[in-house]
Each structure stands twice: as structure tokens, then as C-alpha cells.
Design brief:
An 8-stranded mixed beta sheet has the order 1-2-4-3-5-6-7-8, with helices on both faces. It contains 11 helices and 8 strands. The protein is globular. By secondary structure, it is an alpha/beta fold. The chain has one domain: Rossmann fold (3-Layer(aba) Sandwich).
Length: 272
Amino acid sequence: MSVIRTNDIETYYERRGDGPPIVFIHGAIVDHSQWTPQLETLSDEYTTVAYDVRGHGRTGGSTTDPYSIELFVEDLEALITALDLDHPVLCGLSMGGCIAQVYAARHSEQLAGLVLADTFTPEVLDWRERLQFLMLKATIPPVRLVGYERVEKVMVWFQERLQGEGVSGDYEKIEQLRAEGPKMATDEFAKVIHALTSFHETDIDFSAIAVPTLVLYGEHDAGFIRRHAPKLGADLPNATVRAVPDSGHTSNLDNPECFTIALQNFLAEISF
């Protein structure tokens, strides 16, 4: 358990194992512990690094306002440089996948590979996605009143009724992660949501991402995620797209065995 200075914050990270490096980037409103099943398996062969993104976990918040995916990318670049990681594979899920996309487009030559799980591109494909992000923005006022845990439970219930059971995956695992880690401040929640809902303003040159890429998505994930997965496969020059069966939006936790096997097979083909 360590911290390191990255830009204007002290970033918390966990580093395990020895071998070619993999950097894991978690989704919004959780922390590095989201990746525990993968860290436990892969650290026998690889150097695994999982960290808490600004505003989350033991990294905590900052005075910077607003947040953006670009800011999170700058933090990631500083982390990789400070830890002297040579040509890592990036593995990002949901918001972490957004961060990984932007980093890879800017620094493809510094990576060995890329894994994008349960994530989406900046392009808004239809009105349903606009509605999704409007609903996400609308959570901020009630969160200030009753906290994000209660509001998210309502959102999960609504998503399950709208898109079918399983879309949110094993939500009890997320609740357990939250119970075991530091609580996110409401102001930080608002800044993270701003970063997510402004991602559509980001310009990404996918043709610049030359490294091998694995795109994973949960079989029962939200419709807009399942629409963006094939788009990523088409836009990226060297991508493979795989569905993770029996899983929703946190496919690495919903079906960790299948997710990790897919990741291991991908890593075995990488030239570090």
C-alpha cells in the first residue's frame, strides 16, 4: 500500500508481482479494489498496478474544479512516469475505459496493449444515450440531500426495470466494495459525474491507437455499452471484441473467471 505524487495530488496505488506491467483503472464511484480478482490471479506473472483515480478511495479529492477525463489522463501519465513502468498494458473499465482510450490515443507508442471493458466512446449514438447522461447529471441534487448510495440504489432499480435484470450485474459486490473503502465526498461525486457527462466533448483519434486492443462487455450490460463495443471494434485498427457471459456492467466482478481468462489469453499474445 503506497502513495506517490502525481501532479497536485497524492495518488494511492497497490503494486504486486514481478514481470511485464499492467495498469488497472477502475470505474466511477468505486476504487482500485474493484480489480482484486484480477490482481490475485495475474500478479504471479505480471507486475500489476491498481490505483485510486482522483476523487476516489484513498487518493481522495482535490481543490481542482471541474474534473475531466483529460485531467484523469494527466494523472495517469504522471503515475506511469513516476513508477517507471515500461510499455504497460492499460486495462480500464467503464470510466476507467474512457481514461484508457484517451491515454492510448495520445501515447500509443508507450503502451504494449489496451483492454477496454464495459465502456463507451465520446460519440453519442442516439437519443437514449443523451437521456442516460441527463439522468446521470440529475442525480447530483438528490445525492447532496441523501447520499449517493441511496440514489444509486434507485438508479439500479430503474435500470433493471427498464433494460432487464442483470444490466447492473452483481450490485451487492459493489456495495461491499463501498462498505470496505473510504466514503466519497458529495462534492467529489459531483465533479466525477461532470467528468463522465462531458466525455462526449473529447476528441479521440482512434486510428492513432496502434497497439493490440481487447474490448470486453457484459452480456447483459446496458444497451448503450453493447452498442459502443462493436463501434470500438470497428474504429480501432487492431481490436478484438468479446462478450463476457452472465455479466452486467461490472463484468470483471460479475464473472471474474471468464473475464480473467479472456485477459490472460490476450496478454499471452502481447509482445512486451
